Amino acid sequence: MDRVQKLLSNYGYCSRRRAEELIEQGKVKVNNKTVSLGDKATEKDEISVEGVVVSKPKKIYLAFNKPIGCVTALRDAQYPTIMKYIRIKERVFPVGRLDYNTSGLLILTNDGDFANHIMHPRYKINKTYCVELSKPIQDSDIKKIERGVVLEDGRTSPAQINKISKNKVEINIHEGRNRIVRRIFKSLKYGVKSLERVAIGNLRLGNLEPKKYRELSDKEQKNIIS
Question: Within this chain, do residues 115 and 101 fall inside the same structural domain, yes or no?
Answer without folding.
Answer: yes
